[in-house]
């Protein structure tokens, strides 16, 4: 192949490949809860994993080094609209180099807090998961970031730095109005993220952390770069044949909150595979320090694998708030919870990967 570069022509002998992939997940959900009168609602949305369409490619540059890219868009499959705050490739948009030494990627990508919890957050990022207690967790991505990831034996390490974490202005987990990259304020809207994991044959443990800084006009109370929101987790898992048990702790120190800046979220989970069935459960407990505020969430899910790519599932989740909290079991528009109240969600759906 011949490629023109500027006024010169070079011969390209490297081999390249591009792959198209995706996933569609849709379920029918019914949520009911407290209220006077009690209210309930039914809708369609994703149940276990957000739908997406992606493109990834690699080019062998020789000497063990590869160039690679990933472009992945989130899809609201129930309506056909684009997710992740309306970004065209809001799930991932990266370009990088990789080799035996690891990989360096630039662009919009997952933080290492998210990646450190992959093995232990049993329900995440599906319905009735850790995202019900902390919507940041399934949306922990950073714009304008550079990341390193390396695997050395059973250890995986990663570090990420973002120059401006979020350019979308939607006042939601998918957009927090903090583009950063301000010449007058070098710390505005920065993100720092890191991870170290150890994965043996039948057990593993991980440490992960994100720190996001505020900026002018940013949502979530982080209205200037002197304020930060830090989450750190220690979590692990162990396998006994077809049984997997998980546990974890996530501590949050949020300087954007004037009332309850520190909180802890604990979880215990597990899964059991029997034939084409996967049975999973997870319990969460959220506590705010020096406060009566808290919440408990219990989730059960049964999945039936029609094939490696197609799955039928059913999920039940129940949340109970305490103090002045009113967290919903599911972010159902027009169906808020009440202070100190409870909600129950039930969903059945299907998922197909391609």
In short:
By secondary structure, the chain is mostly beta strands. The protein is 3% helix and 57% strand.
- Look at the structure and give the mean pLDDT: 93
Within the CATH hierarchy, at the fold level, what is the topology? Porin
Q: Total number of helical segments?
A: 2
**Beta strand %:** over 45%
- What is the CATH superfamily? Porin
Count up the domains.
1
Give the CATH architecture.
Beta Barrel
- Computed structural class: mainly beta
**How many strands in all?**
20
CATH class: Mainly Beta
Note the run of SSEs as H and E: EEEEEEEEEHHEEEEEEEEEEE
Largest β sheet strand count, sense and barrel closure: 16 strands, antiparallel, barrel
State the end-to-end CA separation: 30 Å
Shape: globular
Give the helix level as a range of percent: under 10%
| Spans where pLDDT lies below 50 across 5 or more residues | 1-11
3D structure, described in words:
The chain is mainly beta and 354 residues long. It has one domain: Porin, CATH 2.40.160. Helices cover 3% and strands 57% of the residues. The protein contains two helices and 20 strands. The protein has helices at 112-116, 130-133, and strands spanning 2-5, 8-11, 16-33, 40-45, 51-62, 65-76, 81-82, 92-99, 102-110, 141-152, 155-162, 191-199, 203-213, 228-240, 243-254, 262-274, 277-288, 294-305, 310-322, 342-353. The protein has a 16-stranded antiparallel beta barrel with strand order 3-5-6-8-9-10-11-12-13-14-15-16-17-18-19-20. Strands 1-2 form a two-stranded antiparallel sheet. A hairpin with a 7-residue loop joins strand 15 (243-254) and strand 16. The radius of gyration is 21 Å and the shape is globular. The two termini are 30 Å apart. Mean pLDDT is 93; it is low at 1-11.
């Amino acid at each position: 192949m011949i490629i023109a570069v500027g006024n010169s022509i070079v011969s390209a002998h490297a081999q390249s490949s591009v792959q198209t992939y995706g996933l569609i997940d849709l379920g029918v959900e019914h949520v009911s809860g407290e209220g006077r009168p009690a209210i309930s609602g039914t809708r369609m949305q994703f149940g276990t994993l957000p739908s997406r369409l992606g493109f990834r490619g690699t080019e062998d540059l020789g000497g063990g080094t590869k160039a690679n890219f990933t472009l992945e868009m989130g899809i609201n499959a129930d309506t056909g609209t684009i997710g992740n705050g309306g970004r065209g490739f809001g799930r991932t948009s990266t370009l990088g180099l990789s080799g035996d030494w690891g990989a360096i990627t630039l662009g919009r990508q997952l933080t290492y807090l998210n990646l450190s919890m992959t093995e232990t957050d049993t329900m995440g990022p599906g319905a009735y998961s850790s995202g019900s207690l902390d919507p940041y967790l399934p949306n922990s991505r950073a714009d304008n970031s550079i990341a390193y990831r390396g695997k050395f034996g059973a250890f995986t390490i990663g570090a990420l730095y973002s120059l401006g974490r979020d350019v979308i202005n939607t006042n939601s987990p998918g957009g927090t109005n903090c583009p950063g990259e301000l010449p007058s304020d070098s710390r505005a809207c920065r993100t720092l993220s890191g991870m170290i994991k150890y994965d043996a044959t039948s057990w593993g443990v991980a440490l992960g952390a994100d720190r996001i800084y505020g900026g002018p006009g940013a949502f979530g109370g982080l209205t200037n770069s002197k304020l930060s929101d830090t989450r750190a987790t220690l979590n692990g898992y162990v396998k006994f044949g077809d049984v997997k048990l998980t546990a974890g702790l996530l501590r949050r120190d949020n300087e954007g909150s004037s009332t309850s800046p520190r909180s802890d979220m604990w979880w215990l989970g597990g899964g059991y595979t029997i034939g084409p069935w996967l049975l999973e459960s997870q319990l969460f407990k959220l506590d705010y320090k020096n406060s009566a505020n808290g919440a408990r969430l219990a989730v059960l899910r049964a999945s039936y694998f029609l094939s490696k790519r197609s799955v039928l599932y059913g999920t039940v989740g129940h949340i109970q708030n305490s103090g002045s909290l009113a967290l919903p079991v599911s972010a159902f528009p027009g169906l808020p919870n009440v202070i100190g109240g409870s909600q129950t969600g039930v969903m059945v759906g299907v998922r197909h990967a391609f």
